[in-house]
Amino acid sequence: MRRGALPVGGEVKDRDHDKCQHGGDQDPEDQGYRETAAPGIQDLILKHEAFRGFVFGMYGARLAEVMELVEEVAFRKLDTRLAQILLQRGPVVEATHQKLADDLGSVREIVSRLLRSFEQRGWVKLERERVTVLDPKGLALQTRD
């Protein structure tokens, strides 16, 4: 089942597809959609194995991401985690400071301060929406602290 598709009465309706073909602002009821209330979701999960697999697969993936982030935040320092993410994505990381902060579960101001510190040490070069790793060995030492 594609993303954006909902099973309705035994068939699959694709909201994004119909939105493109029908102008996007039409009443969903006119296109054969129905709002799926909690009992409806329960019924779909119980009766449709593909839907159940999709829902629990999405929940499982998101839960794994959250648990990984919690573990990172709880047990590793932010500068270590930032250095590691730069090494993994480098040598040129196309991302804003805000995006890096979001990925690390932090705030932009702290990530920007750490990046400036890395730049002063000669480990990275900062540009608009780009971080270039200049000294991977120096960054790697940071990940061991």
- Strand line-up in the sheet with most strands: 3-5-4
Q: What's the total helix number?
A: 7
Helix content: 55-70%
What's the alpha carbon Rg, rounded to whole Å?
Answer: 22 Å
Provide a brief overview of the structure.
The chain is of the alpha+beta class. It has 7 helices and 5 strands.
Describe the structure.
- With 145 residues, the protein is an alpha+beta fold.
- Helix content is 59%, strand content 12%.
- The chain has helices at 15-21, 38-47, 49-75, 78-89, 97-104, 108-120, 136-144; strands at residues 5-8, 11-14, 92-93, 124-127, 130-133.
- The strands form two sheets. The protein has a three-stranded antiparallel β-sheet with strand order 3-5-4.
- β4 and β5 form a beta hairpin.
- The longest helix is centred in the middle third of the chain and has 27 residues, at 49-75.
- The protein starts with a strand and ends with a helix.
Q: Which key terms come to mind for this protein?
A:
145 residues; alpha+beta; three-stranded antiparallel sheet; two-stranded antiparallel ribbon; 7 helices; 5 strands; 59% helix; disordered N terminus
Layout of helices and strands, plus pairs?
Blueprint: E1 5-8, E2 11-14, H1 15-21, H2 38-47, H3 49-75, H4 78-89, E3 92-93, H5 97-104, H6 108-120, E4 124-127, E5 130-133, H7 136-144
Antiparallel strand pairs: 1-2, 3-5, 4-5
Helix pairs in contact: 2-3, 4-7, 5-6
